[in-house]
Specification:
The protein is of the alpha/beta class. It has one domain: Spore Coat Polysaccharide Biosynthesis Protein SpsA, Chain A (Alpha-Beta Complex), CATH 3.90.550.10. The chain contains 8 helices and 9 strands. Strands 5-4-1-6-8-7-9 form a 7-stranded mixed beta sheet, with helices on both faces. Strands 2-3 form a two-stranded antiparallel ribbon. Strand 7 and strand 8 form a beta hairpin. The longest helix is centred in the last third of the chain and has 17 residues.
Length: 211
Amino acid sequence: MYHRPMLAASTDVTAFILAGGKSTRMGTDKAFVELDGRTLLSRALDLARSVTSNVRVVGDPAKFSPFAPAVEDIFPNCGPLGGIHAALRSSHTDLNLILAVDVPFVSPSLLQYVIMRARNSASAVVTLAQADRRWQPLCAVYRKRFADAAEQSLRAGDNKIDKLFEVTTTQVIAEEELEAAGFPAMMFRNLNTQKQLADVREKDDDLEARS
């Protein structure tokens, strides 16, 4: 297994938790859904703070400012790309970790690995992982200048993130590399529905009963 050096929480990276989604499929605000007695927002904030001291939430300040500095969308109702754009426009660092609030299985070591790869490639505007043969744009590092491409796309009415990876210098961390480094694809599972949440809770209960 690949040896991963542990990195201390740094100040050259800003982490942004995307928490401004409508949570339509969940039926309630995902940020405040509880898993193992903690909200997804609390888990995401602790995760982000394990790799950087600069952590913010992208979402309604009235809702999220009690928990961390909050950033509002400049282009509202434009999905994750609008959140990424707002994050980068507000950032004072070149490297920016974007993390969805609903990926509770991501580990600090995985984030450190992605950040390390981004640091080591000055030419990469985006550094993101691939899992289950899909890009993972909401657990990725973006350089501040990605905001220009995002804004151009948003102004054109196109909210798709993946398209921008084809016209931007993008560093993809292949699934095989992640697996070899000890990061299985299941880490990127997100919780979108009540059923997915119930399934995870049931598995946790089974493990606890067996221990």
